[in-house]
Amino acid sequence: MTHRLAVSSALALLAALALASVFIGVSDVTPATLWRGDGHARDLLTLSRLPRTVAILLAGASTAVAGVVMQLLVRNRFVEPSTVGTAESAGLGLLVVTIWAPAMALPGKIAVASGFALAGTALFLAVLRAVPLRSVVTVPLVGIMLGGVIGAGTAYLAFRYDLMQTLSSWLTGDFSGVMAGRFELLWLVGALTIVVYLVADRFTVVGLGKDTATSLGLGYRGVLALGLAVVSVTSAVVVVVVGALPFLGLVVPNVVSMLVGDNLRRSLPWVALGGAALVLVCDVLGRVIRHPFEIPIGVVMGVVGAAVFLWLLLRRAPDVG
To answer: Which domains, ranges and CATH numbers included, belong to the chain?
Structure first.
């Protein structure tokens, strides 16, 4: 199969999944009702179904891309924003704003959450530099423990201010509340995905290590800072708008790496397509498993992602023992 045919097939599959997503739900929106000119079906399509599908595509693609950038920066295949404390730090920032500046506009909340996510990611990198790494599994374990500490502190703060339910809604991905006018900030993370593609070669070189990147004349610190900013802002925006999508940035880049290799410029379109497709599939599953009720996508992603994460660990067991 040629590369062009493979890309065309993947886009066709993604379009089919997106079309299925538009017409799945509790309310009756079908091609027939739209053809008859049903006003209620048309409003539901334009105000809810289409924005929801677009939000899924943007959040899925950008989160998967943030995951592969994180893996290149850390030089480890088993990390992503939700396993190194980045998503938990963004949730902490959002909680702090909610407690002490509840009237702040949404862009301001995202800026604060991005700042906390950046600080949490920088703390993770600082811990990695201080801990002797004897196994590739040590890195995600350090990240998971750091995320657990940040999450515990966040939960305590939320408990003190009676915001546990609010915190849970932020950290559990859910697209059921997406409507026109409440998802447009996700276009920002879509733009960041394009930025990553434009400098993909630099991230690939950074993935070879600081010494190699420096010897090739690359401004290592600048590319590192750009990568951290992309990961932090993407995590914060996704958490604020739709909630966290666990394991997405870990599973998709690893599967794509096995299929097309580690050259980011070549693999990035597949990572973006794979992330969007996986979120679409999980969202549809969440809507049909207990229809007419809906299971939040964060729960579905957690089950699917954890299973694939375990499979990846076992598959590489001889390398990590």
So the answer is: 37-313 (1.10.3470.10)
